[in-house]
Amino acid sequence: MTKTQMLSPQFCPCCEKDSWQVHYEKEPVLITLGEVVVTISADYWECLDCGGTYDNPRDDYDPLAIAYAEYERITGKKWESPYMKKIRSK
Q1: Whole-prediction pTM value?
Q2: How does strand 10-12 pair with strand 36-47?
């Protein structure tokens, strides 16, 4: 895990106030999609006031989209949850 420098106060969506934040980038993070395990890197912030953590709010960072793309790269198929398969089969 890499811990970057503390930054100036910014808005925390957990406690809904401006507070000191610490940025983390963590590798690897394992996500299981069905029987396939994919690896992504996590990019998140921690609020030093409330201890809450949240994904990096950058527009270009979507951990689930990254995991689904990795699943498709490994299997050659798009991910479809078992729940959605059940709904579509009705």
Answers
A1: 0.67
A2: unpaired
CA neighbor of 63 nearest in space, from 80, 41, 78: 41
Residue 10 DSSP symbol: E
Domain extent listing, the chain: 2-88
**Torsion-angle region of 76 (φ positive above 0: left; ψ -120 to 50: alpha; else: beta):** left
On the question of a cis peptide bond just before residue 9, with omega within 30 degrees of 0, the verdict is no
Eight-class DSSP state of 73: H
Task: Tell me the pLDDT band of 6, cut-offs 50, 70 and 90.
Answer: low
Cα 21–chain centre separation = 17
